[in-house]
Records
---
Amino acid sequence: VGLSACFLLKEMQSRSCTPSCGRYQLMKNRIVGGEDARSGKWPWQASLYMGAHGHVCGASLISNRWLLSAAHCFRDSDSVRYEEVTVSIKRIVVHPQYDHSISDYDIALLEMETPVFFSELVQPICLPSTSRVFVYGTVCYVTGWGAIKENSHLAKTLQEARVRIINRSVCNKLYDNLITSRMLCAGNLNGGVDACQGDSGGPLACMGKGNRWYLAGIVSWGEGCARRNRPGVYTKVTFVANVFLQPCLLHALRIFSMLLMGSH
């Protein structure tokens, strides 16, 4: 991973025109309770799929070679697609402390076989710093091709839904103390809006500094879909990702992010 990461950094520094992370380039407007997303609005959203099974999980593009997703997705998936590009997965690195029984440390790093070329429809999302806090009540968006209602069919068009970060202590009580410090909750306590089957591994994107979108969470688990007092539970990217990513890769991605932010 270290050699690949260092090569990534060198490659990105040599690009003459580097796009900005956390921004969508097009000026245009299933997740349960969501709506169709406009083409190009969430250009870091990827679909992980396996042969005849089709779409199985979501993922987020964080550089031209790397994606982040949920660890529980990776038993079989071996390809990734965007709106106009398909690439194979070269390597899947699941967090060494991933605990399937309680969905703790539910995060995986994916290296693509070949780098993707950035365009209006393919862009990376920004990674938050370890000190970044997404306060309770923050409005964020969850996106994916998952079921449009519990135990239903997958969405044919990428869906988006507006959710709010929920107080951890409140969420922990609702879920009988199953919410660890590596998790965060988002949704609507009245129900009606949530991620669902097939959205796992996808992004919880929150607006941050410089009007850029940051990857706050990764769709992980929940009880049913969009139920009252059962919000969605996400892997907390600020806590897990920066510890998980190996030093050379993390250094490369951070400099890559700085290069992106300085290019616009």
---
Amino acid sequence: MYAFLIELVISRISSGGDYYEFPYTFGSWQCCFIVFLFLFSVFPFNVWAEDSPSFISSLGNWLRAPGGVVVNSNTGVVYVADSGHSRIQKFTDDGVLLGSWGRYGSGDGQFSSPQSIAIGNNGDVYVLDYNNARIQHFASDGTFISKWGSRGSGDGQFLSPRGIAVNSNGDVYVADKGNDRIQYFSSEGAYIGKWGVVGSGDGQFSYLSDISIDSDSNVYVADQGNNRIQKFTGDGIFLNKWGGVGWNGRWRVRISTKHINQ
């Protein structure tokens, strides 16, 4: 029985995308505590005002290791990539659960550690299915539409993808971390192009971790290993960069819908 409990805990940790080995032998009470901690822990989302550091509310019941969150700007619906539960949950902007879909697996509509999520112009939902090395495309109610990608380094393949974003034309951009590149596709998954190699020069990446797109279709990439943000045109032409060593630990980059007055 205790061996089963330990195996279950390791499986739940692995579903979050990171793998750990336990060098200790657990007693019965320790096994029960570990199972309780990982199977019944709650990870809420906090909501903050954009123009000030004022806390507004907390969202989420029974979320485990959520990997991404996005808001449909037209409807206000909040979509969460609930990585530890291998599902997508949707809420009102004040945290009322509207529905969910998905479970662990590799079939259509199934997930293994969904890590990021994006909304298309028509409200469709694109999910970066991390451990399955693919993108899944759904209607706003969770109806499966299509999928693309597999594990590898060829065009349309991914290694440890970390971020996803959609531009105003509906093109889908993916931060392909393990291959140190950005790939982009049509809204239906047709491969369009790519840019980037490993390195520290302009247009090069080291452990890129997220991606975002502004209203002019410029692409912003969180280049975590190089401690910087890089900015590109939609077809990958380098425009700018900023950051430095003091930016350790950055993972996510998002574009405000409001203009900044300068």
---
Amino acid sequence: MIVVVVVVVVVVVVVLIVVVIVLVNCHVEIVAVVNDAVGTLMSAAHGDRNCEIGLILGTGCNACYMEGLDNVGTWTHGDDQDHHPRQVIINTEWGAFGDNGCLDFVRTEFDQELDTFSINPGKQIMEKMISGMYIGEIVRLVLVRLNHENLLFTSVDRDCNLFERGRFYTKYVSEIESDTDEFFRNTKQVLDELHVENYTIEDCKVVKYVCTLVSARAAFLAAAGEKLFDCFLSYAVLDCIKASF
């Protein structure tokens, strides 16, 4: 359903752009098609030439960075090198980082279950650990496991929405984390929407703690990825990697 909605939105946007171009009689030449990460970097660099990283952290995640042309082995220079740019934008598709198993040492049973029941098992591993499309489901899986261990919602009806895949939205994580007092108003509202009954204040504390852990891990992974780009740009990758551990 999500994929269909995204495709429909893209088609509608393209049609609207074409209609506007025709109506105002513009002569437009399309010279490139870029994704949101590259577009973000280009738009920011237009106003600040020191901007060298484009980062998307939303429903999905991706990043790109500026690279010296001499370091891009796939670029064919041709005869007239003076007309080539000195830098190019590298789109990393970093959401796929970990598809080769290199992140298995930090993945949990909840990450593995989420991946198994996703529309693309084994793909976009890093994205599934940090992006908005998946964070809510990770929290839900943790809460369900705690319930099965009789550590949370001990008298809950297991026919409620908490036990249905995809029903714990990522927006719930932000709402729950915004609770700042002992009344847990937002947490209670979320639990009510999920039709969780007979919860206690201790249950609310645990739910908020789980949300905090999952979102903090996502932030740490995103920060680690951004730090690696800093390393590429400073040409001190090994030193940066050592400093991260």
